[in-house]
Every structure is written in C-alpha cells, then in structure tokens.
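Troubleshooting entry. Yesterday's outputs looked truncated, so today I'm pasting the complete records for two proteins to confirm everything comes through intact. If either block looks cut off, that's the bug. Protein one:
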Amino acid sequence: MMHEHTPGAPILFLRNVTKRFGGLVAVNDVSFDVREHEVMGIIGPNGSGKSTTMNMISGALKATSGSIELQGHDLTRAKIFENARFGVGRTFQLVRILPQLSVVENVIAGGVFGHKRRWGREAEDFAESLLDRVGLSHAIGKGVDSLTYIDQKRVELARALAGQPEVLLLDEWLAGLNPSELRVGIDLIASLRAEGRTVILVEHVMDAIRSLCDRCVVINSGAKIAEGTPQEALSDPEVIRAYLGDA
C-alpha cells in the first residue's frame, strides 16, 4: 500500500518518560511525538539511553514514570505481548532469530503474535511475500543457519513486518554491515519509508539518519537535548558538544 510520503498526525506520544535502574537514571523526563508515515531517528552517544527508550516503547522495559501512548493504548501499563498486539514491531541490536525454525517459520511467528494476526496458509503466503519484499525470495526454503548476517537481519525485518505494525522500531538495524550491505540496507529502509510506514530508527550511521529521517531526537545522558530535522539537530551546538566534547 503506497502513500505519498507526507507525515500525518501524531500517533505515538512519549510524555515525561523516565527509567531508573536503582540509583541510575537511564532515561530522564523524555517527551516527543511520532507522526504517522514519519521516519524518526533517535541518536546520541553510546550509553545515552537510546536503546532503553526503544525498550520502553516495545514493552521490554517498563517506564518508572511518565506515559507512552500509541493510538489510545497506554504502552506503559501493557504487558509486553500486548505492545505487539497494539501495533509495535521491532528488530534488535543483535539479531534474534529462532534457529530451530525455517526462514519462513521465523517470519510466520511475527504474524501469529503481531498486531494483525494470520494463521495457516494465509500466514505462509504473507510470510513468503514479505521475504520477497526484503530481497530474500532465494532463501524461502532454507534454514536460518545457512544465511549471511545481512540476510539474517532481513529475516528479522520481515518478521517484524509480518505483524503489520503501526510503528516499526529498528534498533541499530544497520550495525555490523559492510559498506555494500549498508547501501542495500539503507535502500531497503528507504523503500519502507516510501510505502508510508511509521519507523523509529536508533542508528549510529549518520548517512542513514540524514537520508532517511524526517526528524530526529538527540538523547545524551538520558535527557533529550535536541529535536528537529537531521540538519537542525546535528548542527545544534549542544549536540556537537555531546558527540565531540568541548575541544
């Protein structure tokens, strides 16, 4: 389903979200909205709280305080599987695929547990169409142990898409790819963007942030220090200082 790529109304709202681990404040009073059909980047130095923020949106972690709402559903009160039901799909920093299942079965799993559920032959057909969509039609009959790293990442992406999420979280999906794979990966995310999908991207690859994101939020030491277009955010003096220090 193609949309003109114009961000719509906000559908995901983070309000004063804080996460404490004992005495450590990993995310501190962070607020931002994500609009439908928008690619939003979350960037910042290592250890700044980006993955913790993604984990709270996906339900893997519960916020200590604040609220995260997706189309009327309070994700901070939901059980982890409910976040997927309510429309959150995700990939992980380190690829997580199910080694005992085939490539197709890995993708079907995303449909069975996702936002819009499919079963049986319908689920299998949909899984195969998604594998084709991410450039993996050649791997449809294979086991996952035969796949290259980028192809494992593509399986994980297809699995996330199988639940037809309202919001797709890509947590450093481009990490670990060589330069030619990186180009393929950026093009693949660009094609999701062109379809009008809503994507949140945690990424260290600044070329990807610049070329893919409508807006980005910059987090440093758990706090939001900037928000705007990639050009605005990356030229903010506080952001430059966060990445490069005061030198």
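Protein two, checking that the full record survives here as well:
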Amino acid sequence: MRKIDTSELLIGRFTARRMSVLAERLEAISAEYLDAMAVQGPPADLVAAFAHPIPAMMICELLGVPRTDRATFTRHARAMTAPDGAPEDVGAAYAALQRYVHELVPAKRADPTDDVLSELTDTDLSDNEVAGLGTFLLTAGLDSTANQIALGIYLLLSHPDRLAALRADPGLVDQAAEELLRPVTIAHSTGRAATVDVEFGGQPVRAGETLTVVLQVANRDAARYPDPDTLDLSRSATGHATFGHGVHQRLGQRLARIEMLVALPALLARFPTLRLAVPAEEVPIRHDQNTSGVHQLQVTWDQDLHNRSLEKEND
C-alpha cells in the first residue's frame, strides 16, 4: 500500500476563498443553533447545544455532505464523541460514519460539487484513499474543535470581568480568541525526534532520541507571556503552541480559528446575560480522556431580557 502525504494533499484545500465561504455558512449555522437554544430556554448544556454541533456542521460543509443526510451524520458524530458512551456504541458510530464517507466518495466522483471530497476525486487517489482522507478530517476536526470552543467559552464565563471587557469592546475578539486558545490546549503533549545532536535546556539530546513537548507548559512560558497564568484578553497571544509549531502545525487551525471568531461573538450577542449556571469549579472538566475539554457546560441567561431585546430588534 502506498504512503499518502496527508498534509501535502489537504493543505491546499484550506484556501482563503473556502475559509471565507465557510465563515459565511458558519454565521447562518450558528444562528440556527442559537435560535434553538432560545426556544428551549435556560438552562442549557452549551456543549450539546452549540459547541459540538458547530464543528460537526462545518465538517459537513467541508466534505460536501448533502443537507438531507446531515441529521444522520451529526447523530453518529455525537454518539462517536459522547463522554459517557459505551465502547461498543462509540465504535458502531465511528463505523457508520466510515461507511457513509465511503459511500459518499463515488457520488462525488460522479457528480462533483464545491467541497474537499469532490476535489480529491479529481486526483489519482482511489475511492478508498479519498474516503480515508475524508474520515481523517472528520476524526481530526470534530471532537478537538468542539472542546476548544467549549473550553474557550468556559474560560471566558469563568472570568466575568474579562467577559464584560469583551462585551464593552467587541473589537477585542481577534486577540481575545487567541488568548482563549492559549492557557488550556486540547492535546496535552506531542513528541519530537532530534535529527542531529543538540542541547536543549542545558541537556544533551542525541540524534534519534525523542522529546516530549508539553504544550500547556510551552503556552505558559513566562519569557513569552508575562504573568502567563492570568487570562489577559488584551495581550498578543500569537505564537502559542495550541495548534503545534512550524511544519507540524495542525492542518485545520484556520477553520478552528474561524469557528471561534464567528461562533463566540454570535453567542455573546444573542445572549447578553449569558453566564454559568453552576459555580465554575463544578463544571465537569474532562480528565479521563487523551484530550482536554468539558463534559458539560451548563449555562443560563435572563430569558425575559432576551425576549425584550429580540422584540426591539424586530420593531
């Protein structure tokens, strides 16, 4: 079996034009889920109601999943990443999504649309290879991005003074999003092998030896980020290692940033009184899996004030 360079094949598919189109779709998709939250009323689990569906729907957009199939697709995606899911249920959901992507590829080859799978069918890849790349995008971009959104919102709601500052100055959103990505990374660590003999932190590292890089420690380096344990939305947090570094940066980082930059302001604008429904220390942080996150994020808001605000907008 030939070896496929996943990054080389996919990186060119994340173009500025495609990201712009996805941002427009994300605005509409976010509004739909926020509408559903408003109709349901408080309290709500923001993970299930917003943070998880948003990346799932964006992957549907990226892969070109037909709208008629998206409810089934997202149901399997939710089951695959359920925090309390039984192993057999998680496995069955993953297998169902694999089957679906494998069935979708021949349809894209026969009738291509403007999506990544269709573009990949216009290469020398086989249907199985294209489906494998599609499944890779699904698994790489769903749970991690959902938890990154949920963690960012949790950090913001846990610091009401920072939240108030962002509400007062929406222009802060770009650098605020980067700062929310910095303190808590989804992946705990990564490994890097030395290609030559080097010295790192005063310690010799021989060629071929592997170093474990703890990403959260890198992101809290006081030499780069003064007072690193403080959430400072006004700081320039660019250069953090949340998405990796150099040639090893995460493929979908542009999409993950767009999801944060679009979804977060939409959420705060729609619910001006949004706040945690439980004390911050009672939010169930995900310590029992390989990636960080929150199992649930119970939030609430003043429904009467929300309804009156909508009435004024509609007048």
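Both blocks look complete. Sanity check on protein two: The domain at 6-184+252-314 is CATH 1.10.630.10 (Cytochrome p450).
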